[in-house]
Amino acid sequence: MNFNYDEWNEIKKKISSSLHTIPHYKESDIWWISIGYNLGYEVFGKGKDYARPVLVIKKFNQHSFIGVLLSTKLKNNQYHIPITVKNKTISALTSQIRVFSTKRMLYKHTELDERDYTKVIESIRDIIKLPPSR
């Protein structure tokens, strides 16, 4: 599959240099984010904005947060956590967790209910399983 990295790079430069209104967001919000093209098995965005929905997991400050990418593809494994968004079952891709700049945020889609948000958080805790301190 051929990807147009040059096209995405031009959009990324515009996002980076544009005046940015800091969005009001919080943990458990779902936002459409300009993800762009990524490498290997990293999930990438689609459409003219190279966007996809992202669940805000941890807000660091007004400028950055940890998010989990969402997908309509349902798979039965520990990295595709089924959640309900606007009466539709989708997956939180816990293997696709990363830090995002709020400059990438396009618009708020909705807010995840507390039960499903907790389910995603617990799943992340289970898969990370950090080793004990030395």
SSE layout:
Elements: H1 5-17, E1 29-34, E2 51-59, E3 64-71, E4 80-85, E5 88-101, E6 105-111, H2 114-128
Task: Kindly describe this structure.
The structure is a single chain. With 134 residues, the chain is α+β, with helices and mostly antiparallel strands. The protein has one domain: SH3 type barrels. It has helices spanning 5-17, 114-128; strands at residues 29-34, 51-59, 64-71, 80-85, 88-101, 105-111. A six-stranded antiparallel β-sheet has the order 4-5-3-2-1-6, covered by helices on one side. The chain is globular. The mean pLDDT is 88.
What's this, in brief?
This protein is an alpha+beta fold and 134 residues long. The chain has helices spanning 5-17, 114-128; strands at residues 29-34, 51-59, 64-71, 80-85, 88-101, 105-111.
The CATH architecture would be Roll
Give the class-level CATH name.
Answer: Mainly Beta
The strands making up the biggest β-sheet line up spatially as: 4-5-3-2-1-6
The CA-CA distance between the termini, in Å, is 44 Å
Q: Which band does the percent of strand residues land in?
A: 35-45%
User: SSE string, helix = H, strand = E?
Assistant: HEEEEEEH
Secondary structure: number of strands: 6
- Tally of contiguous helical segments: 2
Helix content: 10-25%
What attributes does this structure have?
alpha+beta; SH3 type barrels; six-stranded antiparallel β-sheet; 6 strands
